[in-house]
Amino acid sequence: xxxKTSGEIEQEFIENLKKSTGRSLKEWMSTLGEFGTRKRNDxxxxxxxxxxxxxxxxxxxAGIYLNAGKAVYGxxxxxxxxxxxxxxxxxxxxxxxxxFVTKHFPRSSVLPKKSTYLFWRSENSPLxxxxxxxxxxxxxxxxxxxxxx
Length: 149
What we know:
Elements: H1 6-21, H2 25-34, H3 40-51, H4 55-66, H5 76-84, H6 91-104, E1 109-112, E2 116-120, E3 126-130, H7 131-148
Antiparallel strand pairs: 1-2, 2-3
């Protein structure tokens, strides 16, 4: 079974927004601007209560609005750049960790998400690692690697 990426889900949502709601993305950005808040949870709650959105679509639309009207999951490169924007020092550790994973698990792949890294093993079962814990995991991995040499 093929799994859609967050970017594909978001793009499909944007493409069908006018058809499903009667308003274009540009019109929704204007409407959300009239809400008078930039708090994600407030926007999501209002979209659900007043506009009949389900949670996922309300969250997608709020995310796009808070990202200056641009797709949040547009590319995996953008996701990585956003994660390293405040912690550039972590990039070499991340790259080293990814090199380790791809070397020792050649049939796996890495799919960066907004705040996690999803590793797909050969059995098509995901192993998700939260970005807030990835630095600790990388440091543990570096420590293990240094003691095994």
